[in-house]
Amino acid sequence: MPAERGLVVRWSTPAPIAGADLRARRAAGRLASRVALAEAIAAWRAAFGDAGWQRAPVVHDATGAPRFDHPAAPAIALTHTAGLGGGAIAMPGVPHAGIDCEPADARGASALRQIAARSGEDRLEWCDDAWPLRMWCAKEAVVKAERSPADLLGRSLRVERVHPAGAGGVQRVEVRSHLGRAFSVVTEVAGAHVRAVTA
Ligand SMILES: CC(C)(COP(=O)(O)OP(=O)(O)OC[C@H]1O[C@@H](n2cnc3c(N)ncnc32)[C@H](O)[C@@H]1OP(=O)(O)O)[C@@H](O)C(=O)NCCC(=O)NCCS
């Protein structure tokens, strides 16, 4: 994503598994998120230097939020679905990290449209028909950045503003989290997936 700021992000596409069911493809996506995180560690090291946390294992807190098991580690975020995994590490001084991805043909878009019709989010100047999933991925990225679960359908988060689309269909959106904090999130459609990264 050209417009991302604040995070070192890498995406990884698992090799296709012949005849694999959705569960196996999701498992491959989860593995891909660890490959992506390893690549993000290498990129972080190349940009900002070697640090002890780069060799620490990833653990999860009580809500499932991931972190490096090291007191000086930056924030991280992971996402995975069938066919894609992503890993993100906050740059020095950046307090949070959030990323999300979903298949562009994911079911549930009509439910998201209904929610957005009630909230007014459907009247924002979205740049394409993928907007329900852009909205959803942006909210999920913010939930991860907050490291705190929200309501199941994300009604307690709100996309307050969308910016004009940039090159390659990248569209930045402004999200108010369920904890009342403002986040800028970069969304894009990349191949068969919609992706979102907190900026
Ligand atoms: C946390 C949540 C947003 C994850 O999203 P998802 O689309 O289901 O799954 P993704 O593949 O994108 O992300 C999974 C990763 O998120 C991370 N994660 C899980 N819980 C998390 C939390 N509370 N905070 C931050 N990251 C979390 C984990 O690293 C997990 O991968 P791992 O278990 O392999 O390490 C989801 O579990 C959820 O919906 N939780 C509760 C309800 C909620 O908050 N809904 C928000 C709607 S906008």
From the N-terminal CA to the C-terminal CA, the straight-line distance is 11 Å
What's the Cα radius of gyration?
A: 16 Å
Strand-residue proportion: 25-35%
Question: Helical element count?
Answer: 3
User: How many β-strands, per DSSP?
Assistant: 10
Task: Please give the largest β-sheet.
Answer: 5 strands, antiparallel
| Average of the residue pLDDT scores | 95
The percentage helix is 25-40%
Topology order in helix (H) and strand (E) letters:
EHEEEEEHHEEEE
Q: In the residues, how many domains can be counted?
A: 2
> Uncertain runs with pLDDT below 50, 5 residues or more?
none
Please give a structural write-up.
The protein has two domains: 7-97; 101-198, no CATH class. Helices cover 27% and strands 28% of the residues. The protein has three helices and ten strands. It has helices spanning 22-48, 109-119, 131-146; strands at 7-12, 58-60, 66-68, 76-81, 84-90, 99-103, 158-162, 171-176, 182-190, 193-198. The strands form three sheets. It has a five-stranded antiparallel sheet with strand order 6-10-9-8-7, covered by helices on one side. Strand 8 and strand 9 (182-190) form a beta hairpin. The structure holds coenzyme A. Residues 30, 63-66, 78-81, 100, 139-140, 143-144, 147, 149-150, 152, 154, 157 line the site of coenzyme A.
